[in-house]
Amino acid sequence: MAKELWKGNEAVAEAAIKAGCRFFFGYPITPQNEIPEYMAMKMPQVDGCFLQAESEVAAINMVYGAAGAGARVMTSSSSPGISLKQEGITYIAGAELPCVIVNMVRGGPGLGSIQPAQSDYFQTCKGGGHGDYRLIVLAPASVQEAVDLVQEAFDIADQYRNPVMVLGDGMMGQMMEPVEFKEVKKRNLPEKTWATVGTKGKRKPNIINSLFIEAADCHNHNVRLFKKYAEIEKNEVRVETYNLDGAEIVFAAYGTTARIVKNAINSLAKEGIKAGLIRPITLWPYPYKAIEEAAEKASVKAFMSVEMSMGQMVEDVKLGVNGKKPVFFYGKTGGMFPTPKAVAEEAKKILGGAK
Amino acid sequence: MFNDKRLRIITGHYGSGKTEFSVNYVIGLAETGKKTAIVDLDIVNPYFRSREMEPQLTEKGIRVISSSIKGISGDLPALPPEIFSVLQDTSYEVVLDVGGDKVGARALGRYHEYFDREPYDMFFVLNANRHQTSTVDGAVSYLRSIEQGSMQKVTALINNTHLCGYTTLEDIMKGQKLCEDVSKILGLPIKYVAVEKKFVDLLPKGLQGEVLPIDIYMKKPWED
Fold this sequence. Notes:
The structure holds two protein chains of two kinds. By secondary structure, chain A is of the alpha/beta class.
């Protein structure tokens, strides 16, 4: 298929439909409105269901219901709306239901701004809702990658019976890029024997639930969840590395920020400074190993996490580096982007100081 | 070139490149020495709007009219009364950059009395690489929905077929063919073929529409 020009939000919606998503429940918020808008247009054409809920809280609980019945279902929002969905998300994680949630992050906290940000990293990767649970978090850096990951997200969710968050930012949602829709590599997916689709009088009813009245039952449920999470950590870590050979400084950046950092790396190279990049594609499970291996390289003098936040992923970089090398941070937030030039300048300051 | 009606309305699917076209057009128009204004009527897109170019445009002597809310980052559909001044003051050559769908085009409906009063040009910017306008049927139906929303008639087509940084000559020619087909059905002329400067010498001679060489102003944060 020839490449077409797609707006990130539209492309994400189309990718979901191509992946067999037939239920979408959402509520409008900038900068992700083209997702529900596209779904409203397209779902009726594929005999799917688009429903604009009365609130984000209602939307996520509709997702809970549809996922419980075994449907491929998605919702999307941007930061403040995702905050509202947290209760439903922890219930979905607790009840082990597959679904896909898209967050096109904007500036925070509170209503913040409508411009792009990455300041929902903590919320996405370190909890968000209550209890011990994990979301599988995919962080695309281009519209093409967003399309590929959204299509795969539904399979990942089904394989592990776990909600998957696709974490973009406003720029990802709003920018136009060439896209080609491809066939996703098939996974061997388990049958949804747990779904509430009616017993037809032939079996005991399936119950979708996250309530465990006995403490021991709740404990055992958590232990079982964490066995599953360990499996995901083993199988699903994804990372892109760039120019790590001989790098003096290693940047860590995800999503659109990684593209800014790549430009910074190329301009540093022109000045004879070797810099590399570790770009986590999964934010959970996090590619600690890639960070650790880079930290053990003799050439590497320092790490720098570059984010559109006040410094959130930098904590995971520090966990990966584990004290072997100094870890720095550079970021802009509230809807501002770090520029390639500023990133390069920061790197030079650090390397100058380390000599 | 630029010898169009005083009021030029620029419409198109979002992603067609109508803002890029509008910005390039108004700069070219200003360089002919005329008193120019650009009105950013885009109330549907939160990013990549012509108002982001205000400092560069103002420097070239172009009057920029956008939201009445201060700042470029809001998504409040607030249209300032200042728009009336350039609609009424016929000493201005005006470019109106309209939002990219029928909802966005509706903002124009509010000013329809001025277009009833004075002949205008309304360009439909077409990008054959956008999924909703990649076929003749798709393009015609999108054009009609914009006419409906805006309560105005398209007067000419603009071939602005591109693939961001990955455009090829084949893309442009595919768009030209689409414009010719739409042109035949609707009886509308192709007014401009907007292409990045590097393509100008590669285009075959005798294309319908004047070639408008453009610079890329609306950049992503990593495109320095």
